[in-house]
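FAQ

Q: What does a record look like?
A: Structure on top, sequence underneath. For example:
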């Protein structure tokens, strides 16, 4: 009976040791799982913060694109306005509603003198050419002004000074 009791006691001690080992292993596994969870939560928080920063950057970039598109549309409108103004100037010069500056009129008088000397059958395209040139000059200057204004507005939008 003592022998049987000793065997049962030895078996009970073995079960206790085995359970302690299992509990120790499960505690270690639980601690590792908690550490992994904490690490995953830290990475998740960092990822969410990065997503927020990227979302803000995307929103800023979209705003910049909208503003740049608005500036480009305004530039194209001003460029078209400059061309229309140039065409009106040429039409007004042809119709006699406007006159060229004195410097350009001197070329007209010189052409008239040359025309008197040349044969009467040769048409003079000089006046029309001067009108076209004046229109191109005014149109080019207006287009350059529009481009400068658009580029300055874009530079200001991007945070720079004009």
């Amino acid at each position: 009976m003592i022998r049987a009791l000793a065997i049962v006691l030895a078996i009970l001690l073995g079960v206790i040791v085995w359970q302690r080992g299992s509990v120790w292993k499960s505690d270690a596994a639980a601690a590792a799982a908690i550490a992994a969870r904490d690490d995953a939560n830290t990475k998740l928080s960092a990822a969410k913060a990065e997503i927020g920063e990227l979302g803000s950057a995307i929103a800023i970039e979209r705003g910049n694109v909208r503003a740049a598109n608005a500036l480009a549309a305004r530039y194209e409108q001003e460029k078209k306005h400059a061309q229309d103004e140039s065409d009106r100037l040429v039409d007004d010069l042809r119709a006699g509603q406007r006159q060229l500056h004195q410097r350009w009129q001197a070329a007209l008088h010189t052409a008239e003198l040359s025309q008197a000397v040349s044969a009467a059958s040769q048409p003079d395209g000089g006046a029309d050419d001067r009108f076209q040139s004046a229109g191109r000059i005014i149109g080019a200057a207006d287009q350059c002004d529009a481009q400068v204004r658009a580029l300055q507005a874009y530079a200001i939008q991007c945070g720079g000074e004009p």
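Q: Is there anything notable about this one?
A: The helical segments are 2-95, 102-117, 126-157.
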